[in-house]
Amino acid sequence: MILHKTLLFSSCLLGLLRRNSILAKEMSGECAANNSSYVSGTHSIAYITIDTEDRAKKLAHGIVSNKLAACVNIVPKILSIYEWEGTVNEEPEVLMMVKTRTSKVDALTNYVKSNHPYTVCEVISIPIINGNDAYLKWISETVPLPDCK
User: Fold this and answer.
1) 85 and 27: one domain?
2) How far is Cα 59 from Cα 82, in angstroms, rounded to an integer?
3) What is the pLDDT of residues 102-145, one digit of tens each?
4) 7-12 long-range contacts, CB within 8 A, separation 24+
5) Is residue 61 classed exposed, middle or buried when 0-12, 13-18 and 19+ CB atoms within 10 A define those classes?
6) Which residues span the domain enclosing 70?
7) Measured between alpha carbons, how far is 31 from 20 in angstroms, rounded to an integer?
8) How many CB atoms within 10 Å of residue 42?
9) Which end of the chain, N or C, is surrounded by fewer C-beta atoms within 10 Å?
10) Are 129 and 41 in contact (CB under 8 A)?
11) Closest among 124, 103, 107 to 115, alpha carbons compared
12) Looking only at Cα atoms, what is the longest distance across the chain?
Protein backbone atom coordinates (compact mmCIF):
# COMPACT_ATOMS: atom_id res chain seq x y z
CA MET A 1 0.00 0.00 0.00
CA ILE A 2 2.77 2.45 0.93
CA LEU A 3 4.69 1.48 -2.21
CA HIS A 4 1.57 2.08 -4.32
CA LYS A 5 1.04 5.56 -2.78
CA THR A 6 4.72 6.39 -3.27
CA LEU A 7 4.58 5.36 -6.93
CA LEU A 8 1.38 7.33 -7.46
CA PHE A 9 2.89 10.40 -5.80
CA SER A 10 6.10 10.03 -7.85
CA SER A 11 4.11 9.74 -11.09
CA CYS A 12 2.10 12.87 -10.27
CA LEU A 13 5.24 14.78 -9.31
CA LEU A 14 7.05 13.70 -12.49
CA GLY A 15 4.06 14.81 -14.60
CA LEU A 16 3.99 18.17 -12.87
CA LEU A 17 7.73 18.66 -13.37
CA ARG A 18 7.45 17.78 -17.07
CA ARG A 19 4.58 20.25 -17.54
CA ASN A 20 6.52 23.00 -15.75
CA SER A 21 9.62 22.26 -17.84
CA ILE A 22 7.64 22.55 -21.09
CA LEU A 23 5.98 25.76 -19.87
CA ALA A 24 9.36 27.22 -18.85
CA LYS A 25 10.80 26.45 -22.29
CA GLU A 26 7.80 28.05 -24.01
CA MET A 27 8.05 31.16 -21.83
CA SER A 28 11.81 31.46 -22.35
CA GLY A 29 11.44 31.32 -26.11
CA GLU A 30 13.41 28.06 -26.49
CA CYS A 31 10.62 26.34 -28.41
CA ALA A 32 9.96 29.36 -30.61
CA ALA A 33 13.68 29.77 -31.30
CA ASN A 34 13.64 26.38 -32.99
CA ASN A 35 11.17 27.71 -35.58
CA SER A 36 12.89 31.04 -36.12
CA SER A 37 16.22 32.37 -37.30
CA TYR A 38 16.19 35.03 -34.55
CA VAL A 39 18.79 34.75 -31.82
CA SER A 40 17.17 35.58 -28.49
CA GLY A 41 18.56 38.78 -26.94
CA THR A 42 20.07 40.21 -30.14
CA HIS A 43 17.78 43.21 -29.77
CA SER A 44 16.53 45.13 -26.77
CA ILE A 45 13.85 47.58 -25.77
CA ALA A 46 15.21 50.51 -23.81
CA TYR A 47 12.95 52.66 -21.67
CA ILE A 48 13.64 56.34 -21.16
CA THR A 49 11.55 58.88 -19.28
CA ILE A 50 11.70 62.61 -19.91
CA ASP A 51 9.73 65.66 -18.77
CA THR A 52 8.01 66.91 -21.95
CA GLU A 53 6.75 65.55 -25.24
CA ASP A 54 8.75 68.15 -27.20
CA ARG A 55 11.98 67.04 -25.52
CA ALA A 56 11.04 63.40 -26.14
CA LYS A 57 10.55 64.11 -29.85
CA LYS A 58 13.86 65.95 -30.11
CA LEU A 59 15.69 63.16 -28.28
CA ALA A 60 13.95 60.47 -30.38
CA HIS A 61 14.92 62.18 -33.64
CA GLY A 62 18.54 62.31 -32.49
CA ILE A 63 18.51 58.66 -31.45
CA VAL A 64 17.10 57.46 -34.78
CA SER A 65 19.19 59.87 -36.90
CA ASN A 66 22.36 58.65 -35.18
CA LYS A 67 21.42 55.01 -35.94
CA LEU A 68 21.21 54.17 -32.23
CA ALA A 69 17.72 52.71 -32.71
CA ALA A 70 15.32 51.75 -35.47
CA CYS A 71 12.23 53.13 -33.76
CA VAL A 72 11.21 55.17 -30.73
CA ASN A 73 7.63 55.11 -29.49
CA ILE A 74 6.61 58.10 -27.42
CA VAL A 75 3.93 57.48 -24.80
CA PRO A 76 2.70 60.82 -23.44
CA LYS A 77 1.19 61.52 -20.06
CA ILE A 78 2.52 58.89 -17.71
CA LEU A 79 2.68 59.57 -14.00
CA SER A 80 5.89 58.83 -12.15
CA ILE A 81 6.12 58.52 -8.39
CA TYR A 82 9.69 58.33 -7.18
CA GLU A 83 12.03 59.23 -4.37
CA TRP A 84 14.66 61.87 -5.07
CA GLU A 85 16.96 63.39 -2.45
CA GLY A 86 14.86 62.01 0.41
CA THR A 87 11.50 63.29 -0.87
CA VAL A 88 8.73 61.34 -2.57
CA ASN A 89 7.72 63.15 -5.76
CA GLU A 90 4.83 62.77 -8.20
CA GLU A 91 5.39 64.19 -11.67
CA PRO A 92 3.93 63.80 -15.15
CA GLU A 93 6.45 62.41 -17.62
CA VAL A 94 6.73 61.00 -21.12
CA LEU A 95 7.84 57.42 -21.72
CA MET A 96 10.07 56.55 -24.65
CA MET A 97 10.26 52.93 -25.82
CA VAL A 98 13.36 52.43 -27.93
CA LYS A 99 13.92 49.39 -30.18
CA THR A 100 17.59 48.74 -30.85
CA ARG A 101 20.38 46.19 -30.94
CA THR A 102 21.50 45.04 -27.51
CA SER A 103 25.07 45.85 -28.56
CA LYS A 104 24.02 49.52 -29.02
CA VAL A 105 22.54 50.04 -25.54
CA ASP A 106 25.76 51.50 -24.08
CA ALA A 107 26.11 53.99 -26.96
CA LEU A 108 22.40 54.82 -26.63
CA THR A 109 22.84 55.43 -22.90
CA ASN A 110 25.81 57.74 -23.48
CA TYR A 111 23.86 59.69 -26.11
CA VAL A 112 20.86 60.09 -23.83
CA LYS A 113 23.01 61.17 -20.87
CA SER A 114 24.59 63.86 -23.06
CA ASN A 115 21.25 65.15 -24.35
CA HIS A 116 18.85 64.73 -21.43
CA PRO A 117 17.81 67.48 -18.99
CA TYR A 118 17.80 65.27 -15.86
CA THR A 119 20.81 64.93 -13.57
CA VAL A 120 20.20 61.16 -13.46
CA CYS A 121 18.23 60.05 -16.48
CA GLU A 122 16.47 56.73 -16.76
CA VAL A 123 17.82 54.46 -19.47
CA ILE A 124 17.05 50.81 -18.76
CA SER A 125 16.77 47.94 -21.18
CA ILE A 126 15.38 44.46 -21.47
CA PRO A 127 16.30 41.91 -24.13
CA ILE A 128 13.79 40.91 -26.78
CA ILE A 129 13.34 37.17 -26.48
CA ASN A 130 11.16 36.60 -29.53
CA GLY A 131 8.92 38.41 -31.98
CA ASN A 132 7.97 39.01 -35.59
CA ASP A 133 11.00 37.88 -37.63
CA ALA A 134 10.41 40.55 -40.28
CA TYR A 135 10.31 43.31 -37.65
CA LEU A 136 13.43 42.05 -35.88
CA LYS A 137 15.24 41.78 -39.22
CA TRP A 138 14.24 45.40 -39.94
CA ILE A 139 15.84 46.51 -36.65
CA SER A 140 19.06 44.70 -37.69
CA GLU A 141 19.03 46.32 -41.13
CA THR A 142 18.34 49.79 -39.72
CA VAL A 143 20.76 49.78 -36.78
CA PRO A 144 24.29 48.85 -37.84
CA LEU A 145 26.52 46.68 -35.69
CA PRO A 146 28.84 48.72 -33.46
CA ASP A 147 32.38 49.39 -34.58
CA CYS A 148 34.59 46.82 -32.85
CA LYS A 149 37.93 48.63 -33.18
Assistant:
1) no
2) 22
3) 999 999 999 999 999 999 999 999 999 999 999 999 999 999 99
4) none
5) exposed
6) 43-142
7) 14
8) 14
9) C
10) yes
11) 107
12) 74
